[in-house]
Amino acid sequence: MKARRILNDMSRRGTNLKSLLSLIPLAFVAGCSMIGVRQPNSVYLIDTAYPATVTDCRLIAESLRDPRRSERDVTERCPWPVGVCIGFFYVLDTPFSLVSDTVCLPWDVYRLSVISACSASVAKQDAPAAQQKAAKTLGIPVEKTLPKSGIVLRLIPAGSFVMGSPKSEKDRCEDEAQHKVTLTNTFYMGKYEVTQGQWKQLMGRNPSCLTNSGDNAPVDNVGWHDCTNFMERLAALEGMPKHSFRLPTEAEWEYACRASTTTVFCYGDAPDKSMSNCRIVHGCDILERTLPVGQFKPNAWGLYDMHGNVSEWCANWYYCYQWHEVSPTGPAQGLNHVVRGGCWWISVDFQRSAERDVVEPNYKSYMTGFRLCMPVGD
User: Fold this and answer.
1) Residue 5 confidence (pLDDT) above 60
2) Cβ–Cβ < 8 Å for 181, 160
């Protein structure tokens, strides 16, 4: 099986010296069998554009060493910077202990391939039960209403999930590589998108293009910095510290959207116009405006309109996913911020739970709004 996969890879890439080097791990496995040594469980052939050292190789191997994973081919991304191209391999044995490593060979390689690898997985939890347990443990309500503004928040318990989409998912993009994410802190998330009425209450004017949708429709035509200003004023109105409210990180947003689901949308794999305000197909079946929040069914956390209505700003800059991230906040600086969830104007294809879109922080559109995030303890 391993030999077939290596030779198939050679035929796709062309038989050259670099490809012949791919046979090194195979020869190692064959040698083990010939001399009576137990064959390793997994052979990892890793090619990456990176000026690697033995330490670098060990770190990369460590990211693959997770006994809860299953076989997959990790060809979707290389999160390390491109530099001097090298090739190397690891032979890992049960229980994923390092047997042999070699750093070698400056050949042109711009991909990461794993011959017998794994995919991230986490134990599936019952979302409402986890929500209730977190509330009981922390002594706080599942649902919280801010007294002055009337904004309603839902508790999202800390936990782990698989972020991104599988290769088999229709309409997926290359920057959606699946990886495990652990969120260590419980937080509150807006039950609804911030509305035009709530914006006018704090900011004095309505910037929305779609004012005919009414005060209970989501505010639109607001940039990233506008959202930050709104949240600072909200904190002052509620008599809370200045930075009590923020936008959710991209990981928090997807975790909150999925609510323990692994399907294309939080409600299943098939598009359903009864579940969100969107185009079902390009150019038809469109309502031509936003709708008042809460018109469709909520997800398992009790959040409405996570798909459609308006695309939602996230806190962090756009970046390439890493292997296993813990409460990721993204890079310190960048060019574009992430927006999630899709909107009323675009096809449902762009409303998938894993779909990522990027825009400049000053971008304003009738398609873009936001919802609040509030860390627990504030």
Assistant:
1) no
2) yes
